[in-house]
Design goal:
Layout lengths: L2 H28 L18 E6 L6 H11 L3 E7 L8 E4 L4 H10 L4 E4 L9 E5 L13
Parallel strand pairs: 1-2, 1-5, 3-4
Antiparallel strand pairs: 3-5
Length: 142
């Protein structure tokens, strides 16, 4: 191979690597798992009380979703396991504040929202985490 071909191949490899780095970095800043809502946060002057229920067979998913929502300023007051299994995440508006439920849904990556008021609960939103939700990657601290 001539030096020119080797140089062109080297440049092509560097371009492919640079594109890969840019793509990975863009995905990381969007949120792990392609979550478009990584930058969506709870309003600073509002307390949105959230219940997170795991609606899958994956252990620890409600705990991971709780940490994710708390990092974004939501007040997760209860976690648990749902008896109903879901493929996609469902956000339930419990206090007739659809904008709060929509905010939680956007932070989780555009989950589906339904209104199911329940004044017997001291909650604003219930999140049923489905199998399609991917928790963000946890930082590695050796």
């Amino acid at each position: 191979m001539s030096r020119r071909r080797i140089g062109l191949v080297l440049v092509a490899v560097l371009v492919v690597i640079a594109i890969g780095v840019v793509a990975v970095r863009a995905r990381w800043t969007e949120g792990a798992g392609g979550l478009p809502g990584r930058s969506v946060r709870a309003p600073a002057d509002t307390r949105i009380r959230v219940e997170v229920l795991n609606a899958t067979k994956t252990r620890g998913l409600a705990r991971r979703a709780t940490a994710y929502l708390r990092d974004r300023g939501f007040d997760v007051v209860a976690t648990g396991t749902s008896s109903e299994a879901l493929d996609s995440t469902l956000v339930l508006d419990r206090s007739n504040h659809p904008e709060w439920a929509a905010l939680v849904a956007r932070s989780l990556g555009n989950a589906r929202v339904e209104t199911r008021p329940d004044s017997s609960r001291y909650l604003d939103v219930t999140v049923l985490v489905g199998t399609s939700w991917r928790p963000p990657a946890e930082p590695f601290y050796p």
